[in-house]
């Protein structure tokens, strides 16, 4: 046998917002089920939901509407969203806010009349972002964690999933092989249903903002097991990442509300350059537009000394900045800036994957027995995510997955896994321990990050993408020679090698999909195809594993509620 064994009814992989909401809804609906959470970091202390700053979008004000939030999400997503998924997001987001407050004890900031305060965010036609100061995620995750710890849920911290298990037919997913990273031991978990909630995380870029332990593991594992993934070319770059070379703060996000509150962007010539790119919305334009503008200013020689541009709030009321954005003031102070009084050097930073595992309206993937929610899943955000829609997606779809699994698992008997597959996962994950010291995992990670930043980044073109694909193949071959020190317990070098394996797999999917889509849409900008082409490209790029690398196919977007022509007519009315 490949390692220790455990049988559970439901295995949740991940310990962020989607995972915790799934666990709460599962145990509420079906208290008799045996539920296991396996998390690479610590429960609720790892992942990006905890890092959420700005807040959560929900329609709470009678002057706002589901239709408006939906239209903002779809136009922000450049019509690449699966519209039924986006509709689920906007219609369920308000109930989740009430659930967070009334069931789990979260408390969000209030307006003077006692109602929940909602602030402006980029790309939105209404102020609908619910928040707790500028560190909203900590409030949400602490309360969700307390609630989960009060339920009958087995929590395996510092256990990373290294591969999915299938039954002997190969058609049904029935659990996962975990690595207990503290002890260096493997645990084979058989489950009647498995939920992926590992939170995506584009940490394959030289400048990135997600929590450092994330490495797109869920997407890599699902793809390797044969699930369809889609929209991988859609990588969001947040425009305002801190530039602090040589520091862990490099790439850390300064929240969107700073632009919403009136923050201005300047280049080295002192020009408020957004006038060139989006004169109507200026700094409040969507993230893709602002990121590209910042990137191009720097590339064309009008950037700051370290290759970024400047964010300036000094024209705003200083006390109000300090009061409204205490977390951001503290973060910039740690990097040597005074946010309220002076300008701060910023750069686009890889922030979020709109693409991921393909799901239906019940969070089911294309593999029987496997579900996905949160940033591991695709379809909700289209080609570009609006600020405030990410945490809403995680919590809404995590809860939905919990409800669905509670309902569906009753009809699913336990099946036994294919032991050869479990052995293969263990052998593959252990391989770097057995090798002589060859290639260095950290060096290859650095190479990967530089390569993705330079050739598959904010602005792409066919020649660079082809180069990147060839270099990724070569890097993947070199990664086969990585050897790490052979101590099994708490081996961070081993962890880096495993992270690299997942990142190489998903980077290849990103580069392949980006080369395939010969147009520009949302976060995907091709300098050689700068125009959005709705006639040919209102399609998802779907990737599936085949013997010789990914097989790519175009699948039409289902425009079930809004189409681009109607949206244009509405905007002109
Ligand atoms: C700095 C920052 C600020 C943000 N601010 C906002 C905001 O203001 N509003 C908004 O809407 N969105 C925001 N986002 C995006 C938002 O945080 C994410 O969209 C969302 O939280 C993702 O939730 P999740 O549950 O899918 O994953 P996460 O919360 O990231 O959780 C992933 C979990 O999976 C675990 N994991 C990873 N790999 C494995 C593995 N192999 N095995 C087991 N466990 C694994 C991780 O340890 C972690 O516990 C922000 C993101 C960042 C990085």
CATH domain topology of the largest domain: FAD/NAD(P)-binding domain
Please report the first level of CATH classification, the CATH class of the largest domain.
Alpha Beta
Overall pLDDT score: 95
CATH architecture of the largest domain: 3-Layer(bba) Sandwich
Shape: globular
| Helical content (DSSP H or I, runs of 4+) | 25-40%
Structural class, by secondary structure, is alpha+beta
Using DSSP, what is the number of strands? 18
The CATH homologous superfamily of the largest domain is called FAD/NAD(P)-binding domain
The main pleated sheet reads as: 7 strands, mixed
Number of helical segments with 4 or more residues:
17
Structure, described:
The structure is a single chain. This protein has 573 residues and is α+β, with helices and mostly antiparallel strands. It folds into three domains: 4-181 and 196-234 and 352-411, FAD/NAD(P)-binding domain, CATH 3.50.50; 237-350, Alpha-Beta Complex (Flavocytochrome C3, Chain A, domain 1); 433-533, Up-down Bundle (Methane Monooxygenase Hydroxylase, Chain G, domain 1). It has helices at 17-29, 66-76, 83-102, 136-149, 217-224, 257-260, 274-277, 287-302, 318-324, 326-334, 389-408, 419-434, 441-455, 462-479, 492-516, 534-537, 564-572; strands spanning 4-13, 35-39, 56-57, 118-119, 129-130, 153-157, 159-166, 173-180, 185-196, 229-230, 235-242, 264-266, 309-312, 343-353, 356-357, 370-372, 539-546, 549-556. The strands form four sheets. Strands 1, 2, 6, 7, 8, 9 and 16 form a seven-stranded mixed β-sheet that branches. It has a four-stranded antiparallel β-sheet with strand order 15-10-17-18, with helices on one face. It is globular and about 65 Å long. The relative contact order is 0.17. The model has no long low-confidence stretch (mean pLDDT 95). The structure holds flavin-adenine dinucleotide. The site of flavin-adenine dinucleotide (FAD) has 44 residues, from α1, β2, β7, β14 and α11.
């Amino acid at each position: 046998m490949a390692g220790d064994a455990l049988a559970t009814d439901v295995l949740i992989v991940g310990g962020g917002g989607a995972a915790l909401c799934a666990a709460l809804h599962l145990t509420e609906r079906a208290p008799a089920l045996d539920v296991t959470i396996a998390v690479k970091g610590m429960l609720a202390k790892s992942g990006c939901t905890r890092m959420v700053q700005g807040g959560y979008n929900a329609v709470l004000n009678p002057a706002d509407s589901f239709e408006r939030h939906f239209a903002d999400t779809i136009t922000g997503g450049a019509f690449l969203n699966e519209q039924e998924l986006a509709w689920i997001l906007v219609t369920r987001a308000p109930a989740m806010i009430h659930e967070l407050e009334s069931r789990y004890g979260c408390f969000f900031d209030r307006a003077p009349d006692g109602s929940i305060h909602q602030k402006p965010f980029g790309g939105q036609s209404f102020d609908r972002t619910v928040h707790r100061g500028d560190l909203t995620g900590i409030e949400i995750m602490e309360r969700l964690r307390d609630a989960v710890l009060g339920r009958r849920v087995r929590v395996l911290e510092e256990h990373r999933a290294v591969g999915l298990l299938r039954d002997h037919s190969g058609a049904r997913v029935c659990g996962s092989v975990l690595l207990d990273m503290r002890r260096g031991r493997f645990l084979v978990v058989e489950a009647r249903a498995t939920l992926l909630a590992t939170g995506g995380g584009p940490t394959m870029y030289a400048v990135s903002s997600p929590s450092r332990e994330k490495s797109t593991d869920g997407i890599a594992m699902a793809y390797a097991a044969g699930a369809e993934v889609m929209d991988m070319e859609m990588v969001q770059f947040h425009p305002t990442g801190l530039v602090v070379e040589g520091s862990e703060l490099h790439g850390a996000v300064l929240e969107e509300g700073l632009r919403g509150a009136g923050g201005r962007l300047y280049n080295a010539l002192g020009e408020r350059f957004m006038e060139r790119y989006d004169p109507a919305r200026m700094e409040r334009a969507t993230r893709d537009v602002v990121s590209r503008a910042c990137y191009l200013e720097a590339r064309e020689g009008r950037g700051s000394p370290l290759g970024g541009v400047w964010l300036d709030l000094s024209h705003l009321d200083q006390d109000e900045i300090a009061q409204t954005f205490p977390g951001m003031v503290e973060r910039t102070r740690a990097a040597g800036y005074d946010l309220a009084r002076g300008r701060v050097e910023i750069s686009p930073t890889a922030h979020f994957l709109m693409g991921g595992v393909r799901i239906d309206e019940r969070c089911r993937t294309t593999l029987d027995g496997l579900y996905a929610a949160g940033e591991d899943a695709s379809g909700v955000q289209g080609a570009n995510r609006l600020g405030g829609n990410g945490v809403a997606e995680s919590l809404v779809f995590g809860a939905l997955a919990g409800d669905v699994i509670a309902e569906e698992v009753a009809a699913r008997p336990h099946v036994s896994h294919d032991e050869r597959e479990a052995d293969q996962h263990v052998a593959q994950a252990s391989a770097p321990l057995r090798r002589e010291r060859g290639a260095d995992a950290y060096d290859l990670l650095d190479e990967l990050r530089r390569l993705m930043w330079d050739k598959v980044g904010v602005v792409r073109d066919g020649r660079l993408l082809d180069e990147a694909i060839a270099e990724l193949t070569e890097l993947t071959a070199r990664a086969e020679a990585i050897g790490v020190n052979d101590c099994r317990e708490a081996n961070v070098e081993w962890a880096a090698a495993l992270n690299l394996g997942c990142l190489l797999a998903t980077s290849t999917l990103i580069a392949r999909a980006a080369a395939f889509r010969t147009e520009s849409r949302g976060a995907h900008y091709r300098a050689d195809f700068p125009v959005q082409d709705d006639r040919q490209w209102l399609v998802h790029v779907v990737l599936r594993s085949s013997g010789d690398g990914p097989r790519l196919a175009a699948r039409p977007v289902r425009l079930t509620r809004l189409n681009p022509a109607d949206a244009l007519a509405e905007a002109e009315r």
